[in-house]
Amino acid sequence: MMRADLELIHRWVPEGAHILDLACGDGTLLAALARDKRVTGYGLEIDPEGITACLARGVSVIEQNLDEGLVNFEDDTYDLVIMTQALQALRRPDRMLDEMLRVADECIIAFPNFAYWRHRVHLGIRGYMPVSKSLPYAWYDTPNIHLSTFNDFEHLCRQKNLEIIDRAVGIGEQEGHWATRLWPNLFGEIAIFRVARRRR
Amino acid sequence: MPEFPDDSVGLVMPQMAHFDDPLPLACGRTLPVYDLVYETYGTLNATRSNAVLICHALSGHHHAAGYHSHDERKPGWWDAHIGPGKSIDTDRFFVISLNNLGGCHGSTGPTSDNPATGRLWGPDFPMVTVSDWVHSQARLADRLGIERFAAVIGGSLGGMQVLQWTLTYPERVANAVVIAATPKLSAQNIAFNEVARQAIRSDPDFHDGWYVEHGTAPRRGLKLARMVGHITYLSEDAMGSKFGRDLRSEDLSFGYDVEFQVESYLRYQGDTFSSAFDANTYLLMTKALDYFDPAAGHGGVLAEAVAPSQCPFLVVSFTSDWRFPPSRSRELANALIRAGKPVSYVNIDSPHGHDAFLLPEPRYQAVFSAFMSRAASELGLEEQA
User: Fold this and answer.
1) pLDDT tens digits, residue range A126-171?
2) Closest in A18, A42, A52 to B366, CB measured
3) Backbone angles phi, psi at B352, to 5 degrees
């Protein structure tokens, strides 16, 4: 059983695509995509245990720090770049978005929504930095240095003139109930965006 | 009689394969007849699909694992990684390790007889390249009835042979493991090799390479060459933590005898090596290193050179390796990525410099084992009884 966000992304990836999975973790998604959809490509990861797990699964994994960009990947050489749960930990998420859409036409990005109502309660009423299932760290040891909201991300895409092809929100990674809701910025804990360069 | 450890392949016996079919070499010359000495560990399965080839580095040889006798003090040079339950698991794989042509451990080389002259080959032994080695290794595979290797594996110069295998005989390699290697030497690498060669060639006992006939050997030159080489195998940190500025005795002697521990160590390494290794072989091996550059025939574009390869690669580097630093392994991994080939790249945190590839290290072993057991299960290799 895959994490619910990965389950949804799995559905969005086309058959036979050549893809990159940034911060691919233990390679679960890439292994499933290779098996079910004949997908090829590479996972990028820096966590030693994740890398070993990828190798055990037969996933091609490159030890690479995403903050150094994707310089070793050429323009327009992939169908799709996927990044789950890493955007908020990057030094420059905006530049990574440019990089992802340099090597591919399309990308799928999943990240925790900072404006999720429980987070708002933590910060707005109780006056503490939010700690939740999607943001499990304390303020002092969190790798998440660029938290954003559903609205923030849409705003960035508009600024960059990117096309949002699809979006979905979820309550908790583990729950399989996904739907586009009336107020996603309030009720969505995890946001998943499918973004493309506008065709000129 | 002392027992061998449980995870050792135990007592091993070198074997010899003689070849009568002449081997054309890259330099234009032909080796009319030759012998290759090799060892095997584990059991070849009925379908001959579990064979692994080990390619050795500059001063390596066929004795990669186990012991030649109960009195042998140290096991083979890669015993940390070859054996039952180890990264290259001899319960599943049949491992072949040979001494390359030009070597001085039993395969035909400068210390063998030249059938044309009746003298030793000496400096007349033809220059051999990484490609030549790969061709000769393929003939050994033919002899042993192995059509396709489950994996070809090597570190340093051995890693270059692995890369060459995937380009020359892509259909004969199911998996490639390239450790602490480089797709070509840098100017600095060649410079160090040249210092080593000059040390040997300028030794008065070198006699243009005919030292055996003069009843001598360029030991001082070979010792110097090894001392220089050894510095490049260790990292500054590793040397620092091993020796620091420790002195052999309490007071400075204000002379040129050994004073610092690091001097003593280097001299010892040089002496041991120069009494056991052939100088002409050392010269040949360093030239094979210098010449290796598969991208040269493709306008320097490595991504084009690697196009023939067909198998998954594992490329491993070590953080403190400054002989073939991580950037060189990344260069290879990136070329494979550009060519759309399946490749994994791992950079192991180690203080041991280039020598790290020989040593056991938990993350190195975990990564290596994970790749090899995935290879084994993909090939349907069961544990051998």
Assistant:
1) 988 888 888 889 999 999 889 899 899 999 999 999 999 998 887 6
2) A52
3) -90, 10
Give the CATH number of domain B190-286.
1.10.1740.110
- Among A57, A60, A77, whose Cβ lies nearest the Cβ of B342? A60
Round the average pLDDT of chain A to a whole number and report it: 89
Q: If you average pLDDT over residues B255-271, what whole number do you get?
A: 94
B166: burial class by Cβ within 10 Å (0-12, 13-18, 19+)? Answer: buried
Q: Which of B87, B302, B334, B346 to mutate to test the interface with A (most CBs of A within 10 A)?
A: B346
Q: Do B127 and B25 meet the contact criterion of CB atoms below 8 Å apart?
A: yes
A105, A79 contact by CB (below 8 A): yes
Whether the per-residue pLDDT at B384 is higher than 70: the answer is: no
In chain A, residues with a C-beta closer than 8 Å to the C-beta of B339 are none
* Residue range(s) in chain B whose domain bears CATH number 1.10.1740.110: 190-286
Q: What are phi and psi of B153, to 5 degrees?
A: -135, 140
- The yes-or-no verdict on residue B198 having pLDDT over 50 is yes
- Look at the pTM and tell me if it is higher than 0.90: yes
**Confidence at A4, pLDDT banded by 50, 70, 90:** confident
Buried b (16+ CB within 10 A) or exposed e, A189-198: bbbbbbbbbe
Token look-up 């799995």 returns A10
Cβ contacts (< 8 Å) between A46 and chain B: which residues? none
B298 is catalytic: no
Check B97, B107, B131, B156 and give the catalytic one. Answer: B156
Dist CA A145 CA B159 (whole Å): 40
b/e per residue, B249-261, with b = 16+ CB within 10 A? eeeeeeeeebbee
Distance from CA of B378 to the nearest CA of A (A): 9
Top residue of A22, A49, A57, A62 to mutate, by most chain B CBs within 10 Å, is: A62
> What is the C-alpha to C-alpha distance for residues A96 and A92, in angstroms, rounded to an integer?
6
Output the CA torsion sign for A108, A110, A116, A122.
Answer: negative
Report the pLDDT value the prediction gives residue A179, as an integer from 0 to 100: 47
ipTM of the complex: 0.95
- Mean pLDDT for B184-199 is 98
What is the gyration radius of the CA atoms in chain B, in angstroms? 21
pLDDT(A178) > 80: no
Q: Which two tokens stand for residue B91?
A: 């319960």
Cα B320–chain centre separation: 19
Q: How far is CA B268 from CA A111, B1, B192, B196, B258, in A?
A: 58, 30, 20, 17, 11
Q: Is A104 exposed, middle or buried (0-12, 13-18, 19+ CB in 10 A)?
A: buried
Torsion of CA A60, A64, A65, A70, to 10 degrees: -90
The CATH fold assigned to B15-184+293-379 is: Rossmann fold (3.40.50)
Determine contact, residues B317/B330, Cβ cutoff 8 Å. Answer: yes
Residues of chain B with CATH 3.40.50.1820: 15-184+293-379
Q: Please give the Cα distance from B28 to B8 (Å, whole number).
A: 42
Ranges assigned E (strand) in chain A: 18-22, 40-45, 61-63, 78-84, 104-112, 162-170, 178-179, 190-197
